[in-house]
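User: I'm preparing a small set of examples for a lab meeting where we compare how different chains pack in three dimensions. I only have the primary sequence for this one, and I'd like the structure in token form so I can line it up with the others. Please keep the answer compact; I'll paste it straight into my notes.
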Amino acid sequence: MSNYSHLFFDLDNTIFDFQSSSDIALKVFADALRLPYDQYFKDVYHKHNHEAWSKFEMNLIDGITLRKDRFENTAKELGQSIDGMYINRKYLQQLVEHPFFIDHAESTLQKYAQTHTLIAVTNGLKEVQKPRLKKVGFDRYFNQVIVSDEIGVAKPAHEFFHFAWEQAGKPPKSNVLMIGDNPYSDIKGGHDFGFDTCLFDAFNTGKKSELATFQITSLIELKHIIK
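Assistant: Understood. Below is the structure token output for the 227-residue chain.
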């Protein structure tokens, strides 16, 4: 058990159950295309969404292109055309209006906010992350909320973690634990910056990372890691 003073939390699929919210939001997209919201539709979207986010995380495209391309490229593969920015706005509105939580998320934040400095670090979009935290009242648990879309650089970039570390007051890196679900953006990014990391597999998919200091499948398990 380590004496961490600062806990950096990813948001999507670490605090928020993003998949459940996205399921509701994507139906708006399917309805706009007048297509059934079935597994094929979801697979096509997730392919293009993953491609867009990967490019964004590698700084190959900007946030506007990310927002637009994931919807327009999906529609194109499905034989249609659509205004990607319009659908993006509708989709993001639904994400804010329909938040779901990972098990034990609120009790975890309540517990550690009393004794630790909590920093939210997310590659999400600015239209969603802070409004969603405020909507559910989780903003009160975090000392800082760092959104890649607002600062112009995304995890796992060194620059992202340096900015977040500065905003946290430059604590000794050995006192920081990065907690997130993504082996690349959260774990590799945090590890490369010099933080200990905790890979959280909330849905028990079997994901692994040799770079992770710890691996858990429930937020309750943090009690074995954090004093």
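A couple of notes for your slides: The mean pLDDT is 96. The domain at 6-17+101-224 is CATH 3.40.50.1000 (Rossmann fold).

User: Perfect, thanks.
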